[in-house]
Amino acid sequence: MDNDIERVLYSVQDIQEACKRLGTQMAEEYKDKNPLIVGVLKGAALFMTDVIRQMDISAELDFIDVSSYHGGTESSGEVKLEHDLSIDVAGRDIIIVEDIIDSGRSLKFMLDLLKERHVNSIKVCTLLDKPSGRVVEAKADYVGFIVPNEFVVGYGLDYRNQYRNLPYVGVLKPAIYENK
């Protein structure tokens, strides 16, 4: 898999430092709130695990799965709810944990869904923020890294469900996904 990577953007150490920074910050802000931390499957699973290890607070976990890429390199524009939360969120303080915010469509979909369910508050934590990819308004409250407008994989991010297990985030060589 390493041979398919054009260059590494964020090393294992870079990611560990970001997880510590973000987890510590959220723990301080939520120390008396018992937030519900919502991981966005599948991409955010590794990041969520590492971030919550840095949070020495009471919190609950749940997962949601929304999809807009459907195996490609760009958002299809259609967001589908693949797996819903199992916990009632009414009145709760929510932290959505994302791997990447790109077009913003998936995040907007989740924010709208949670607001309809009368949550108390919602904040968003993302490993990667790609503002150059936005087509709808979407903003994270906690950001690991601002990422360039390139196709990235690793540390949970995938191409056709591959590369998630790379321990770093890297730019996938265009030859891997062009003409597919």
TrEMBL record:
Its EC number is 2.4.2.8. GO terms for molecular function: guanine phosphoribosyltransferase activity; hypoxanthine phosphoribosyltransferase activity; magnesium ion binding; nucleotide binding. It is found in: Cytoplasm. One of its GO terms (cellular component) is cytosol. One of its GO terms (biological process) is hypoxanthine metabolic process. InterPro entries: HGPRT, Hxn_phspho_trans, PRTase-like, PRTase_dom. It comes from the Bacteria. It is an enzyme of class 2 (transferase). Its main location: cytoplasm. Pfam families: Pribosyltran. Its cofactor is Mg(2+). CDD domains: PRTases_typeI. Keywords: Cytoplasm, Glycosyltransferase, Magnesium, Metal-binding, Nucleotide-binding, Purine salvage, Transferase. It catalyses: IMP + diphosphate = hypoxanthine + 5-phospho-alpha-D-ribose 1-diphosphate; GMP + diphosphate = guanine + 5-phospho-alpha-D-ribose 1-diphosphate. Pathway: Purine metabolism; GMP biosynthesis via salvage pathway; GMP from guanine: step 1/1; Purine metabolism; IMP biosynthesis via salvage pathway; IMP from hypoxanthine: step 1/1. Residues 14-160 form the Phosphoribosyltransferase domain. Belongs to the purine/pyrimidine phosphoribosyltransferase family. Purine salvage pathway enzyme that catalyzes the transfer of the ribosyl-5-phosphate group from 5-phospho-alpha-D-ribose 1-diphosphate (PRPP) to the N9 position of the 6-oxopurines hypoxanthine and guanine to form the corresponding ribonucleotides IMP (inosine 5'-monophosphate) and GMP (guanosine 5'-monophosphate), with the release of PPi. This is Hypoxanthine phosphoribosyltransferase. It comes from Secundilactobacillus oryzae JCM 18671. The lineage of its organism: Bacteria, Bacillati, Bacillota, Bacilli, Lactobacillales.
